[in-house]
Amino acid sequence: MRRAVVASATAAAMLAGGCGTESSDLFVVERTGSLPDAKLTLVVGDGNTVECDGAEKPFANELLLDARQLAEDLEPLLDKRTRLPEAQGSIVRYRVFNDLGEVRFADSSPGLPSELGQLIRLTRQIARDACGRRR
Fold first, then answer.
1. Which residue of 25, 30, 31, 128 is most buried, as measured by CB atoms within 10 A?
2. Residue 6 lies in a domain
3. pLDDT digits (tens, 9 = 90+) for 40-93
């Protein structure tokens, strides 16, 4: 009986503290293109997990911190629903979205804001490190 009371109290404390609750998604990245392994959908969560084409994988704390900062940095672009034109010679195209809005751009989009360059790098790093992809 005493064990059941302790287990119930522990579960209640975890729920009250936010432990055991589902974390929210920071953003979703859809990547397409003509390169092998270019097609990828990442759902970047705020709880050290990422979905790689639907399969949930853990990812490093450093990447989570980078993803959180990037989500904040992307807010103005998402809010404006930024769409950058695709220049000739584009190899990879991106769509990033969350509850605030979406951004569409290509690797060759002229005037690419630094935040989108960071998104390209982070997407590639998560794809390699967490998803086991080449790119």
1. 31
2. no
3. 999 999 988 999 999 999 989 999 999 999 999 999 999 999 999 999 999 999
How far lies 92's CA from each of 75, 86, 133, in Å?
22, 10, 15
Q: What is the CA radius of gyration of the chain?
A: 18
Residue 3 lies in a domain: no
Q: For the chain, give the longest Cα–Cα distance.
A: 71
Q: E strand or H helix at 42, and its extent?
A: strand 40-45
Q: Produce one character per residue of 18-37: b if its CB has 16 or more CB atoms within 10 Å, e if not.
A: eeeeeeebbbebbbebeeee
Residue 64, domain extent: 22-129
* pLDDT tens, residue by residue, 92-135: 999 999 999 999 999 999 999 999 999 999 999 999 999 999 87
